[in-house]
């Protein structure tokens, strides 16, 4: 066991990026489910939530692509992530929100969790002196960009929640 | 998981194994830190009301410390189970120990939405094998014969 919050090897970095990919996949799958769960008339009457969920799906897919690009450069094994949606589906019955408040709250949790993950990962990379086979500056810049997009996501959901109080 | 949580988890596991206070030396060994570092953190945990140091015996968690340790252990179980069941990592114990400091409990809670954890968790965690006893069974069954 190590008590230091540091990333010390390519392997550990690749594993953490895989976890990031799974988190994005979870966000994507849950947002997609929420979107599908809205009835047609609800979608028409609530364009704000429809746009939010559509954007969440697109952004998560884009983040996954960027993380996969780094993993490919690290020469690490690929992730069996075609199963993630099935896993989300299998566990979903217990957690599916029943109304717009639930959808928004779940989306807020998604964005906050992703933000926290990237924030901790950037700290752990910065605290390490390890040499990775990808350019550290590029890596931190890319993760910082993704983290900022997650922060914007938190703000967007919070703004919508505040207007509905 | 922050450093204090890793310490209370380690103390909890040692208490379980020893059925008594955790010896400072054993704690330092488990966390791969110096005895001086372990003593320093034990002092901080005492200040926060999470542990009590018993002279010549070791350290024992308070009730608040036990609650915190069980939460930390649950987070650790999620990481192990996620690695073993979702990412098919064979060395899930070693990798969980490496990743533990970087994975926050809110991140683990999100990963928990796609794994199937036992209701007994974290009581099903076996400190001797450093894994959930049910996860151990699944691994043996799935491993092909040599």
TrEMBL record, chain A:
Tree of life domain: Archaea
InterPro entries: Ferritin-like_SF
Name by which UniProt lists this protein: Rubrerythrin
UniProtKB/TrEMBL annotation, chain B:
PROSITE patterns the UniProt entry points to: HTH_DTXR
HTH dtxR-type domain ranges (all copies): 1-62
Source superkingdom: Archaea
Keyword Transcription: yes
Gene Ontology molecular-function annotations: DNA binding; DNA-binding transcription factor activity; protein dimerization activity; transition metal ion binding
Record key words, sorted: DNA-binding, Transcription, Transcription regulation
Keyword Acetylation: no
UniProt family annotation: Belongs to the DtxR/MntR family.
This protein's name: Mn-dependent transcriptional regulator
Organism listed in the record: Halogeometricum pallidum JCM 14848
